[in-house]
């Protein structure tokens, strides 16, 4: 049983490789009657586009989103609405340079899935990582954009931003400024230091990790104990992003050093005091803001020489060429938002199913 | 769509509340022919039994495991074998004191799911948390014990131990000693400090958090990209344990401060150098040891007075009585092992399905 | 991936064998707040009880239903309500005679699953068919009884009756009389002939097949094209009953001889004229009555001598002893109702999930 | 929870409407290393192409199949192989005449899903039935063609043919001749009578129903009791085809008139005598040939005048124009084969998962 579908009620199946025809997603379970604005969806796609500056590679992939099914423009309206049938989304590849990967045909790149993919499948599309490429996340962002238009109906929105990059941590959190710098960083001063750090590491031929925080306004009641608790599904979705090595909710790993009396969020008639729980209690959203953080590893494709082996298990030295990003941040930001949105819309629709009229 | 099933090939559905008839699990998809030794399964149950010392409450729940279906003793053998049909497991409650919870009928306990359960379901079994109680994890451990007997066939085993408790962190890791102290701690000196810290906090009427690490020997090839990556499913399973607030794989949150050249594990003809990846590359086990850590929050039931509200949303002061553990550690240790085993056995069987003979 | 779960929103997992501890079901996804009346549920169980007359065997299995979880009696109420958590149902075996099956240990009974179960699992519980026994359907009826209490909220009910048995076909359909004869037959005269036919065949040591019709009042809009069309799921559920060899909807196999102009049900302002469609159009209920028929094969356990082989593939003559029914009718009647109810309640809850407020 | 995915191990999700951009399917779970020959796949597509004669409409849809992902041509080979990642298949529409459907905007066609789709979704793509069009089955045939290449590895093949059309029934069954007439009919004389009947009914402006039989050579052991029995899943798959109103296995509805001693297939050292069971015992393939029949209703789009209502529920007379087939036969033949293949490949892969090495 392969694992290319996310969600149970709002089910997203993605397909495609970095250097094939394209990538795409089929959404099954989107409610009917939702307005899908093609311009809005395309704007969401554009947020993860590379080539916007120093931390991203100069490749230009337009990521033109096409909606192949599941919509219909009702008579007298301007924008398409969903019909309740599967929504097929495709982004065709336009700028693939398979040749630049030919040197990797027989070598396993450290930190990449080359070696594990071959162990699993016995066959490997070596061109740029194939299915394991970050290119695959374009399909997630496309599906997440549709999810966003559904979530708007329930007043749910999601926001991701950078709280650490290359050792630079934010010291203040002003969400007003996150669109003023290319790291979606809520601390303008920290953003400048991140910029300098990126430049420094680029010259070293190396790459950088960081931490992304995602917040969501969410009504109480979402999440399906005991295994599909909201935090469990959020962790599942976020940890399925290639670069993510850790997920924490609310106080996260800090709870290890806390007393129960410190960690418990007091409840008052006006709401919770504090948010160590991160907006989720016993697997169900409490109405408090959902707060999650993910650890983003440095991109494994570096210009420095590395030790590895070839298909014959002989030691080789490898130096990955091509144009690569210095960090998965900021391009991972809309991907994190997409995975949180896909999780929330799935749970919104799963919850609906038990909002059944009782006596 | 409720969420009380874990796994897709080895599917475990749990049922039961803390103060009802009991708890149990039905396993669908266990391979036939596996020897299930009732004594072995019961020994696994006994590992999470409370009443073994200071960090655990004095309640004595025997947790007697009963196997209701799915097994058969072949002629001439002593032990039952699985038949490939559903395995129904039950642990009937024997020591429930519903009365001690009557004072909680109208009050939401801070840090507990009382308030979110009511928001979701509109009805609440207030007796000891109902389904949200740690009692539910007995069913996980039972299913995990069956999983362990399947995993033995593939040479996979899993071990969990405490690396931090109440601010005390291990400074050495000697897995030989983890059964010599009641925290399953691989550092004997740290275990003594943990003991002292637990005593201190018990007198304060407070509770403690900590960190558990889980390791697994696992062959290469398990995990189902792109959404059911092995780390994503492990995170899902572990984060579905009530007390867990964070999960990290390999270097985990430390990757935020690392360079790509530091984080990449070099590959040599003899294997990987280092294990920042935690045994998983691109969502598929690499053959390196799997290493995961989870953040365990302090138990929310404390003896200290706390602020909360009642069903009428009026401010109240609450003091949770009854006998409670000081920390989810060590009882969470076998639960963590169970969730990792359930994840691995599921992926072992899911992977089997594509080990299909090709031309 | 085993297949012991039915439904996607109202998910029923059954367990148990004919001669083990018992049989049971876990329901995950039942809406909260539904009154479950234990006496009502038990009455449903009693409808499939054997020993009620000539077509059924004289074994007396009380089929005492126990509800192990998922319910709670709210203060001031008399009957339990569902809490939205898993409902565990168990029926423990009381009258199993394993010894009478010992002669079958090495022989495959014709018409039974002995040979195919062994081919699949490599291990077989030979006692009375194990999991393949009709005993398993007790768990379905239990779950169907819960489904019935949910469906009542939506005004949906289901009724099954016998339209043919042993070659005797009904010539009139008066649903008022179906509880006046033990075949649930809507034609009193035909019921008498069925009785005579059963007596005749009993003396021959043989068994009889028949046809059951199931009708349901159902609102328009249930069913999930294109693969989970309502008729497809109904066929799935009904064909999963051991004795069923055919399923037809509305005009069924008669459509083969019809013209389009005959088969199309005209639509009028007052509703449909005719019901060749059987209440379903393009996979979605139309609001017209749902009408399904199933072909029920003769019970394969006959007293006559039959040719078969043993485990060594040697020819043997077999004569199945023990007490067996002459026909799966009437005991299959409540099982058919249960499967239709489980299908409808699942689709009711699946449909709810897209009844999402749009702009 | 929508229902556009078929299968659990070999999961096919289809998308697309009759008059949109096209139709397609994403297959998740296809084993890696399978050779996919584009010419073979296209030949399969061509079998369901319309415009081949009298019983089919003169529309020419080339149904050009495109494989968008999941394949890779290994160095030194000529044909692509599957990589174990999702296979995205698309068939773009080229010959859509939306305008001819404008007159249907406000009218419900009898026998079609117009009225039930609107009841369910509250929005309707009226152009040619949208998702409910037979056009959707092109995606099934495409996925079925991939399934066929997988099944070849296990020696499984499937064949469908016409046994009745418009009241003309076959009297002999010679599978050698089924490609010699356009009805895939195994009785040459009957095929001529069918031809005459089609011509007659065409002149009447009416349409015809029939019966298709499907046979499959299949090893013993496939099927997943108790709910996913092989016959239950086959019935599910076949009944999900729009025109199918009944499914029967082996002796099918004839069992209603049979004695147990007649219906039981005797077992001999050489195999089964007779095949009333249709190759399946207790839900698991027995090794005997699988035999299924489906009842195919007359196409509801007829040229004759019919009574119906419009959106305002006013009585109207409707006469469906456009070019339509006289019968779903023969175009439904490859669709039936596809659904049986998709069911068998899914169960082949599901079964693999429990063929796990035991002690």
Automatic annotation (TrEMBL), chains A, B, C, D:
Its EC number is 4.2.3.5. PROSITE patterns: CHORISMATE_SYNTHASE_1, CHORISMATE_SYNTHASE_2. One of its GO terms (biological process) is aromatic amino acid family biosynthetic process. It catalyses: 5-O-(1-carboxyvinyl)-3-phosphoshikimate = chorismate + phosphate. GO terms for cellular component: cytosol. This reaction introduces a second double bond into the aromatic ring system. Belongs to the chorismate synthase family. Homotetramer. This is Chorismate synthase. It comes from Desulfocapsa sulfexigens (strain DSM 10523 / SB164P1).
């Amino acid at each position: 049983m392969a694992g290319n579908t996310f969600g149970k009620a709002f089910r997203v199946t993605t397909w495609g490789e970095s250097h094939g025809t394209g990538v795409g997603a089929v959404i099954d379970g989107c409610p009917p009657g939702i307005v899908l604005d093609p311009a809005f969806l395309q704007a969401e796609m554009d947020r993860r586009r590379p080539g916007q500056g120093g931390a991203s590679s100069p490749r230009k992939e337009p990521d033109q989103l096409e909606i192949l099914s599941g919509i219909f423009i009702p008579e007298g309206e301007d924008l398409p609405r969903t019909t309740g049938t599967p929504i097929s989304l495709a982004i065709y590849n336009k700028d693939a340079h398979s040749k630049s990967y030919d040197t990797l045909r027989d070598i396993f790149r450290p930190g990449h899935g080359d070696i594990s993919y071959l162990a699993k499948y016995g066959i490997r599309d070596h061109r740029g990582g194939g299915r394991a490429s970050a290119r695959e996340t374009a399909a997630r962002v496309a599906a997440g954009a549709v999810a966003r238009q559904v979530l708007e109906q329930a007043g749910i929105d999601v926001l991701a931003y950078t709280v650490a990059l290359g050792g630079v941590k934010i010291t203040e959190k002003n969400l007003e400024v996150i669109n003023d710098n290319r790291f979606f960083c809520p601390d303008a001063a920290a953003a400048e230091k991140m910029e300098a750090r990126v430049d420094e590491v680029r010259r070293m031929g190396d790459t950088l990790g960081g931490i992304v925080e995602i917040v969501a306004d969410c009504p109480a009641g979402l999440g399906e104990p005991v295994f599909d608790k909201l935090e469990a599904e959020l962790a599942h979705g976020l940890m399925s992003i290639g670069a993510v090595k850790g997920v924490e909710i609310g106080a996260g790993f800090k709870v290890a050093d806390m007393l129960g009396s410190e960690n418990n969020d007091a409840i008052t008639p006006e709401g919770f005091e504090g948010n160590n729980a991160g907006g989720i209690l016993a697997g169900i959203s409490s109405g408090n803001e959902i707060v999650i953080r993910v650890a983003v590893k440095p991109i494994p494709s570096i210009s420095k020489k590395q030790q590895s082996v070839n298909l014959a298990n002989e030691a080789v030295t490898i130096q990955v060429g091509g144009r690569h990003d210095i960090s998965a941040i900021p391009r991972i930001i809309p991907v994190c938002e997409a995975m949180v949105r896909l999780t929330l819309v799935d749970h919104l629709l799963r919850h609906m199913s038990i909002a059944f009229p009782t006596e």
